[in-house]
Amino acid sequence: MSKKKIELSTNVEMLIKKYLDLNDLSLDELTNRALKAYLVNHLSSTQVKEALKQADESESSYSNKLFQSNIDDLNKL
C-alpha cells in the first residue's frame, strides 16, 4: 500500500480528532473509508470498474463484490 502525505486544515483536523475520540478507528481507516465513499460517489460505476480492473485479477473480483456492497450501503442512507 502506498503512503501519501496530506495537510489538514485546522477545522478538518479538529473534526477528525473529535471523530476518532468517539469511534474506534485509526486515521488510516477513517481516511480510506472517507476517500472510498467520496470516490465511489463521484465516479461512474464504469470508471470505478476500469480503475479496479488495473489491479490484480483476484483482487478485482473481490473489489467488485466490495464495490457492490458499498453501493448497497450508500443506497440505504
Keywords:
77 residues; mainly alpha; globular
| Distance N to C terminus | 29 Å
Q: Residue-averaged pLDDT, rounded?
A: 85
Helix content: over 70%
Specify the number of helices.
4
- The ordered string of helix (H) and strand (E) elements is HHHH
Number of strands: 0
Write down the Rg. 15 Å
**Can you summarize the main beta sheet?**
none
Low-confidence stretches: none
Structural class: mainly alpha
Shape: globular
The portion of residues forming beta strands comes to: under 5%
List the SSEs and their pairings:
Layout: H1 10-22, H2 27-42, H3 45-53, H4 57-76
What do these coordinates show?
Helix 3 runs antiparallel to helix 4 (57-76). This protein has a domain at 27-76. The chain has four helices and no strands. The mean pLDDT is 85. With 77 residues, it is mainly alpha-helical. The longest helix has 20 residues, at 57-76.
Put the structure in a nutshell.
By secondary structure, the chain is an all-alpha fold. It contains four helices and no strands. The chain is globular and about 35 Å long.
